[in-house]
Amino acid sequence: MFCMLKKIFLINLFLCFIGMGMATGQVLEVGKLCKQRHFNSLVPAGDYSGITYLGDNMYAVVSDKSPVDGFHVFKILLDLNKGDIKKVEDRGFVTTPNTNRDSEGIVFFPDSNTVFISGEADNSILEYRLDGEPTGRKLNVPMAFVTRSGGNLGLEALAYNAHTHLFWTTSESTLKGDGERATHRNGVKNRLRLQSFNEQLQPEKQYLYVMDAPRKHKKAKGFVTGVPELTALDDGCLLVLERELYIPSILLGANVHNRIYVVDPKEGAEINVPELSDSTPVLNKRLLCCWKTRMNLFSRSFANYEAMCLGPKLHDGRQVLILISDSQHQFAGMLKDWFKSIVLQ
User: Fold this and answer.
1) Whose CB has fewer CB within 10 Å in the chain, the N or C terminal residue?
2) Residue 214: φ, ψ to 5°
3) With b meaning 16 or more CB within 10 Å and e meaning fewer, what string describes 34-59?
4) Are 39 and 89 spatial neighbours (Cβ–Cβ below 8 Å)?
5) Is the separation of the CB atoms in 211 and 230 below 8 Å?
6) Backbone angles phi, psi at 244, to 5 degrees
7) What are the pLDDT digits (tens) for 196-234?
């Protein structure tokens, strides 16, 4: 019996880290989950929540608790043979005339050489020039996201792909009226609306995405589960980062379960309903990879990953995914601003 259980465990572990492939003819797998790294002497403590690749090893990064509205510019150097992050350094902060909007997501729009930034405080997605000046343009976000997000669970994820010419966003948790929100006690699955926009900044199609049920905990000082980030791929598929953060009465024992799923909206049924129901069609999702970070006597790997984007390709053509954690400004001197890369193939 022990041997059989051990075999089942090893098979499940293999599937978790290698991934399940995509629903399309193209198979996407994880070639390598690289070790997370921090660069405290080169990167200021922050609350990093969104990242986008500008090209030539340069990235724009938002922090949701910046003193003023704007974005950092980071230089991230990779080992282009293996995909590991070698070095990260801050190249300065670009300020904007706006007050802090609780910036959560950022994407680069190469057609106009601008960035779009989602703000959870106002649930709007605004365009800025690279010098920080607002252009006055914004995505026409459906009112459901603006009026029914509630609390600190609004527009956090933001993605754009130049090949599909589509922007994507979703709320972090279930919108009011769409069902109960997941907690550490109820075991409810969050139900999220994935919303696309065209390059004229108008809403296109909407799909229902259902998260995994959270693990149940008897007590929790802190608990957050939701989708903090999306990444749009060239073939139209989306990478969806599910994050479940648990903090017990003391920090020791805290952990974060991270899972990246692949969905193909082309294979799903578009929805157009004011409120979700049990009959609303759900997008099929496939596990790409998962990992856990923790804080205990033997590990200080605790990392709440909120930022994710595609980086450059390796010399052999494999794609690299870049992630950054939100350390709550390196809380209590115990947390770090972790960076992680994942090699896709």
Assistant:
1) N
2) -70, 155
3) bebebbeeebebbbbbbbbbeeeeeb
4) yes
5) no
6) -125, 115
7) 999 999 999 999 999 999 987 778 889 999 999 999 999
